[in-house]
Amino acid sequence: MNLTFKLKNYKSALSFARRLLELGPLADMTQQIRKLLQVCGENPVDEHTMEYNDHAPILICAKSYELIYKGNPEIKCPFCGASYMPQFSGILCTVCTVAEVGNDAKGLRISPFQFPKSNILFHLQLVRN
Q1: Angle at 59 between CA 23 and CA 87, to 5 degrees
Q2: What is the pTM of this model?
Q3: Which residues belong to any copy of the Coatomer alpha subunit C-terminal domain (predicted)?
Q4: Residue ranges of domains in the chain
Q5: What distance separates the 2 farthest-apart alpha carbons in the chain?
């Protein structure tokens, strides 16, 4: 919000300030936001163009920090769920550093069908003791 104001992108700063007010900030910040709303409301024009649509839901690529708009291709980290642009498939996740981005990792799954019936009773007895 402050950066867009300093860059004289008053329309964008106005949008960010309204969204921030909806979150219920502290009293000090609320006063600053209201002053910014008043100044930006007089001249709601952006001096610089930005690749941002405040009406579309977005995700942020965890590697390049570029916006990924809903409907555009994306891949995810199977462990933490961080979103990436498709060109980063196969790299180690920069958020959790545990999994390879784009791979399928189902994790540990235990099913009663994995064990014969006699083994299930044995495992249940071990758990009870």
Answers
A1: 160
A2: 0.58
A3: 1-115
A4: 2-42, 57-106
A5: 78
Q: Are 73 and 86 in contact (CB under 8 A)?
A: yes
58-94 pLDDT per residue, tens: 899 999 999 998 889 999 998 889 999 999 999 999 9
Contacts of 13 (CB under 8 A, 6+ apart): 1, 2, 4, 5, 36, 40
Q: Which two tokens stand for residue 94?
A: 């920069």
Burial class (CB in 10 A: 0-12, 13-18, 19+), 52: middle
Of 80, 69, 73, 71, nearest in space to 107 by CA: 80
